[in-house]
Amino acid sequence: MDFHIDTITNWLTTHRRKPTDPSSPELEEYRLQLENDFRAYDPGIMLTRWLGSGGFCDVFLAPQVNVPGKGVHTAVLRVLRPSLYTGPQPVVNNRVVKTFLNEIFYNSYLTSQNIRNVVKLYDYGHLLGKHYFTLMEYVDGPNFLEQSKRRPRDVKELMRRIVFINAVAGLVGELHFRGVIHRDLKPSNIIVRGWEPYLTDLGSARWSYVKDDVADEHLTVLGTPSYMSYEQLTGDYYKVDQRSDVFSLACMAAYAFTGAHPFAARETMDYELDGLSALAAVEPEVPEIPFNNGDRLRNLLQRGMARDIEKRPASMAEFAHQLNSWILEIP
Question: Which CATH fold topology does 145-328 show?
């Protein structure tokens, strides 16, 4: 049987964990079961808190875990949700596992590069034949989503957010320098500690200069639809490069600078019914920015989200330079 993008998307959407009450008996039972199973990894491990669930993984805090060869660490345990790779569709199952292993590969590579603000990978494995997992560095702080939901109160707060977005641009630029495209930049993948950004979630990453994996990517589109570039949504994989990350960061910046998501219309669409390509028809809507030269800043953001990839800034450095030039013009 042939599977196309909508088949995979529907399967993953159906099996994503819905927002959960941390005190629910079901979640507590699941946590205790995992804690018991992972004592085969470390007899003293404790999973003290559920940190959340993403599209693929359930995430728990392990305050004291003995990582073989690396000592005791406070770590984040990410466990691949079994319902995503034990279903009746082998192609889907294989793709989910491949995506998880892909994330491990890029996390391992970037951890070896010792990029300071990329969340580090401590260990990974397949425990007891039933749990694909990673143990990650724990960064204590909120993600950037909460700071993005409210528009800046004044120009000082706007400038702080611009400086923060520039720091994210520098961090992602480090990935690009090492040949890696992130492909899933969004506020929830940026952890904020002391107004420093920490980058996480490399499940959608790929080499910028290797096309070997393109052949089977017709099976799914990786990323988050409301932050995806047009070329990602339409499956034009040979066009995806660092400017696709520029698009996502410009989208994040527009949200952070105005408090309004530029692609809010995408979030109201039923892409299971219409297909992801329907989302590519949506144009960004960026509200006016009520500060001096606000129109110029708004134009910079819209250029970063241009439909034509050639019209976007060519690199993270260029995007950051344009934002900095706006700050220098403030009287």
Answer: Transferase(Phosphotransferase); domain 1 (1.10.510)
